Automatic annotation (TrEMBL):
Superkingdom per UniProt: Bacteria
Lineage per the UniProt record: Bacteria, Pseudomonadati, Bacteroidota, Cytophagia, Cytophagales
Annotated InterPro entries: AA-Vitamin_Transporters, EamA_dom, EmrE-like
Boundaries of every EamA domain copy: 14-142, 156-293
Name of the protein: Drug/metabolite transporter (DMT)-like permease
Entry membrane topology: Multi-pass membrane protein
GO (cellular component) term, any one: membrane
Localisation: Membrane
């Protein structure tokens, strides 16, 4: 009985990460109809960070040390700051499902950075094969040497997503080496760090940010509430639970399920119908991500 209950929790949390994180791309798309991307990221993470940090204090958590604040805030700048700002920016230029697909290359960036700067663990041949397959898929998707009018995805926003994925990978890999506060407060401070970074960037790069606030609709409020409550609180809590109760290879499957969810939701709700070229590229990229995930498991075992 206890085993079946544990199995149910596993699949419930896995489903939450699949659906909620996959749906946040659509939530950002709705918010961008009235708000600029950096301001959207500011509201999402500043409000969410404040609410979650106050909640930790009400639960009896103490105030973290200055070193812990700085460590968590730094990782937050890399993840929810640069990483999510890049995603929000790109969603304004391309279908949300394809942005999710570009984000799915994260395991590849983590393998490379981990090998050169952190664990120095040589990737397995399966991982190398996965990286190669993923690169082929990205070439098909981006069509970098084709004429501009033949490209479905502009190169500059795609490049920004790759930069955001690199900073996300670096922050994820560096985090275990830093002095962090308790897990829930770490999440809250990371959101605050990312939100503050987004605010500074929005003030510098979005001159009409204050004007856009007066154009917010009920849809905007609902989208932001969904991103804060479901995307940041529920989705991340489910992900943390999986990190401690599920095999890493199973948890990592979110990287190639999220794009599928994002593409389906984009087609259903905002009529983002992918072309045959995009579908082929998506299949190739996701096959590469699956191989990378399997390769990391093989490396750990060997």
């Amino acid at each position: 009985m206890q085993q079946s209950s544990s199995s149910l929790k596993l699949w419930v949390n896995l489903l939450l990460v699949y659906v909620i994180w996959g749906s946040t791309f659509l939530g950002v798309r709705y918010a961008l109809e009235t708000l600029p991307p950096l301001l959207t990221n500011t509201i999402r993470f500043l409000v969410g960070g404040v609410l979650l940090f106050v909640f930790t204090l009400l639960r009896g958590y103490g105030i973290p040390s200055l070193k812990q604040w700085l460590s968590a805030a730094w990782v937050g700048v890399l993840l929810s700051g640069i990483g999510n700002c890049a995603v929000a920016y790109a969603i304004g230029y391309m279908p949300s499902g394809l942005v999710a697909l570009l984000v799915a290359t994260l395991p590849g960036w983590m393998v490379g950075l981990d090998y050169y700067f952190f664990a120095r663990q040589k990737p397995s041949w399966i991982t190398v094969l996965g990286l190669g397959v993923g690169l082929v898929g990205m070439y098909i998707l981006l069509n970098p040497f084709g004429q501009e009018h033949t490209r479905e995805i502009p190169l500059w926003p795609a490049f920004m997503v790759f930069i955001g994925s690199i900073t996300w990978a670096w922050g994820s890999l560096q985090s275990p080496y830093l002095d962090m506060p308790p897990r829930m407060q770490t999440t809250a401070i990371q959101m605050l760090g990312g939100g503050f970074f987004s605010l500074v960037m929005s003030l510098a790069l979005e001159p009409k940010m204050s004007e856009s606030l007066s154009h917010m609709t009920n849809q905007t409020y609902f989208s932001l509430a969904y991103l804060i409550v479901m995307g940041s609180f529920v989705g991340y809590s489910a992900y943390v639970w999986l990190l401690h109760h599920a095999p890493p290879t199973l948890t990592a499957t979110y990287a190639y399920v999220n794009p599928v969810v994002a593409i389906i939701l984009g087609a259903l709700f905002i009529h983002e119908v992918p072309s045959s070229r995009s579908l082929v590229a998506s299949a190739v990229v996701l096959a590469g991500v699956v191989l990378i995930t399997l390769g990391r498991r093989f490396s750990v075992k060997s």
